[in-house]
Amino acid sequence: MRIGLIAPPWIPVPPPAYGGTEVVIGNLARGLLALGHDVRLFTVGESTCPVPRQWLFSSPVEPMGAPAAEAAHALAAYEALADADIIHDHTDLGPRLAGRRGITRPPVVTTIHARVTPQSRRLLAETARYAAIVAISHAHARSFAGIPVAAVIHHGIDLDVYTPGPGLGGYVLFIGRMSADKGVHHAMRAARRAGWPLIISAKMREPAERAYFEEQVRPLLRPGDARPAEQPLAARLALLRNAVALLNPITWPEPFGLVMAEALACATPVLAFPNGAAPEIIDHGRTGYLCQGEEDMTAALADVHRIDRPDCRAAAERRFSLARMAADYERLYRAVLARPGQLTPRRAEASAR
């Protein structure tokens, strides 16, 4: 198949630092290439993903989310990929914009990476008129409230990059955005009560992220504690491999949670609040613990030694590999091409399992 992938214009693929969606797109591009497909990626010029690339903007667009820039990027992408057999669009505006303008195009699949809210459902319903929609977890799909979902496909990671480690660093770890939704303050309090040092690798660029740090995180730091910092990939990998556990006390219905799969691939147990897709990623008592609050997380840290690290790695190999994700999408593409405009949610979901 000739497959055209469209990435958002905000971050290169793969991302130089934080960027979950862009990690997934890069992994998918390489996975589809390994399956023998002709893959092209429409992205920004600074991307380095090892497939043929095209772009309108040479550098990432700022500010992130600017609708005019996204519209220009998406229109250029659909024009550049018009000869593909199928387009897989990861932007928000692209499917609606191309559909409403009546652009002649191949069939479109779109993966929804963001949380679906009552406010966004109206736009999502419009998207469903022009594209086969993919949700990234079953919890995510349930939030669509009747909008057709062509498939539920979990993200996959590069298991040759995220390799198992011994977990002998003597610390627990938090990785994510500096945000109340991600629950850094919960992780700090749970780790302190359990007597574990906590290392925080956090994106902290936006005004809201800095404000949250100043208001809720900085007051919890003790003299001598390292200031949270965003780490490059090599440093994050070392931290994950040597952590006793990853703490992920999310306080919102996160659609997936890539860092949890990355931790499991590094053989590191995950302790998380049971929101969003966490129960689909963590096998309670086997690859980590689903904790009902800070006190429960503190108690679970006393039992984390009971988790067999090889079981964590085995779960990642079985369920969250790059190859599995690419194969799931390949099946969906073939189903869409076989029944253009007629793919039912039930048939598509079955094809992607």
Quick tags:
Rossmann fold; single chain; about 350 residues; alpha/beta; 14 helices; globular; 2 domains; about 40% helix
What do these coordinates show?
The chain has 353 residues and is of the alpha/beta class. The protein folds into two domains: 2-156 and 321-347, 3-Layer(aba) Sandwich (Rossmann fold), CATH 3.40.50; 172-319, Rossmann fold (3-Layer(aba) Sandwich), CATH 3.40.50. It has helices at residues 20-34, 67-80, 94-100, 121-127, 138-142, 184-194, 207-217, 233-242, 258-265, 278-281, 294-303, 309-319, 322-338, 345-351, and strands spanning 2-6, 38-43, 53-55, 86-89, 108-111, 132-135, 151-152, 172-177, 198-203, 246-248, 270-272, 288-290.
SSE layout:
Elements lengths: L1 E5 L13 H15 L3 E6 L9 E3 L11 H14 L5 E4 L4 H7 L7 E4 L9 H7 L4 E4 L2 H5 L8 E2 L19 E6 L6 H11 L3 E6 L3 H11 L15 H10 L3 E3 L9 H8 L4 E3 L5 H4 L6 E3 L3 H10 L5 H11 L2 H17 L6 H7 L2
Care to give the gist of this entry?
The chain has 353 residues and is an alpha/beta fold. The protein has helices at residues 20-34, 67-80, 94-100, 121-127, 138-142, 184-194, 207-217, 233-242, 258-265, 278-281, 294-303, 309-319, 322-338, 345-351; strands spanning 2-6, 38-43, 53-55, 86-89, 108-111, 132-135, 151-152, 172-177, 198-203, 246-248, 270-272, 288-290.
Order of strands across the main sheet? 3-2-1-4-5-6-7
Percentage of β-strand residues:
5-15%
Q: How would you sum up the major sheet?
A: 7 strands, parallel
What is the overall shape?
Answer: globular
Determine the CATH topology of the largest domain: Rossmann fold
- CATH-derived architecture of the largest domain: 3-Layer(aba) Sandwich
